Fold:
Amino acid sequence: MRNYSLAIRIYYEDTDAGGVVYYANYLKFLERARTEWLRSFGFEQDQLREQEGIIFAVRSANVRYRQAARFNQQIISSVDDFSLKRASIGLKQSIVMQDGRSEVVNAEVNIVCLDCDKFSPKPIPERLYRELLACK
Structure:
């Protein structure tokens, strides 16, 4: 299993008036980790769109908030595990404080592979599917 972790600093723009990360921004941090995880396999999302005619879209996200992150703290957003189907990927993700001891968020996110013109499910391109399958 190839997991992936991405260090992120909390900027003022990520927070509400109290200096606490706005809840929806955790979804952005999870997205960044998924994008970099995919990139670690050598796949760029813009190239997948242009060359394969596919995009990935979030079908569902079950997010559990454990504690708040605040302005100027550093967090680690990770892809911890995944399951693979022919046209979708289920991911277990987490966000922890930089020290790795305090969990901020854990999530189960399901992304679906879509034909970028029709927005209908389409099989994950064979080369990417094989690369992911090899990591399981």
User: Anything to note?
Assistant: Residues 102 and 126 are 38 Å apart (CA to CA). The chain has three helices and five strands. The two ends are 5 Å apart (CA to CA).
